[in-house]
Specification:
Elements: H1 2-17, E1 21-25, E2 30-33, E3 36-42, E4 47-53, E5 56-71, E6 77-88, E7 94-103, E8 109-120, E9 124-133, E10 137-147, E11 153-157, H2 173-197
Antiparallel strand pairs: 1-2, 1-10, 3-5, 3-11, 4-5, 5-6, 6-7, 7-8, 8-9, 9-10, 10-11
């Protein structure tokens, strides 16, 4: 049992140490590696503002980015990212979370999902995305990205090597309020379901 547990941990470390994306192909019923690179620029809907946390000033950004994803044919198309991030202006540490969508040449959605990332050095993201590929099934991927001075994003998933980074999530009052609000919404939904059962 201990040997099996150790083998599982080694496999997990290997997965996290390399940029890797895997998709379960619902057509052929197999698991296969996929990869793509992406770039996106912020739209006019992207807004940033300062806010104060216990450890200093943060930049809170609610971003909408548009660009392209290229690589595996099932992941090539117009990319839209919607994210929220909080980054400490002094340490460069923070977090980012959001959603992504890729449209094919015909304008139809070919992939979509959610992402969560650790932010280091102010503009370096290392994280995980999970979603669905229309012609491939469920998708899990490590991804890395950098944010340029103009706010543009560039990165890849399924290739390269990312930092094995981790942070204890904090933030400013506004980002904390959003976390509490989300938690409260989930609790309310659960209460409503319990009430219906009764």
């Amino acid at each position: 049992m201990k040997r099996l547990t150790m083998l599982a941990l080694v496999s997990l470390v290997a997965l996290l140490a390399t940029g890797l994306a895997i998709a379960h192909n619902k057509i052929s019923n197999k698991t296969e590696a996929v990869a793509a690179s992406f770039s996106a620029t912020p739209t006019s809907d992207t807004k940033s503002e300062p806010c104060t946390g216990a450890d200093g000033t943060y930049t809170l950004t609610r971003g909408v980015y548009e660009g392209t994803s290229t690589g595996d044919a099932r992941l090539t198309g117009k990319l839209t990212l919607k994210t929220k991030s909080a980054v400490n202006t002094a340490t460069g540490l923070g977090w980012s979370k959001g959603s992504f969508k890729i449209l094919g040449a015909d304008g139809k959605k070919i992939a979509s999902g959610h992402l969560t990332a650790v932010v280091t050095q102010t503009g370096v993201l290392n994280g995980m995305l999970h979603g669905k590929v229309q012609d491939g099934g469920p998708l899990l991927a490590n991804f890395t990205a950098t944010v340029a001075s103009n706010g543009a994003l560039a990165g890849s998933f399924g290739s390269g090597a990312g930092d094995n980074s981790a942070v204890l999530v904090g933030g400013c009052s506004k980002s904390d309020d959003d976390h509490k609000k989300n938690d409260g919404d989930k609790k309310d939904d659960g209460d409503k379901k319990d009430a219906r059962r009764k």
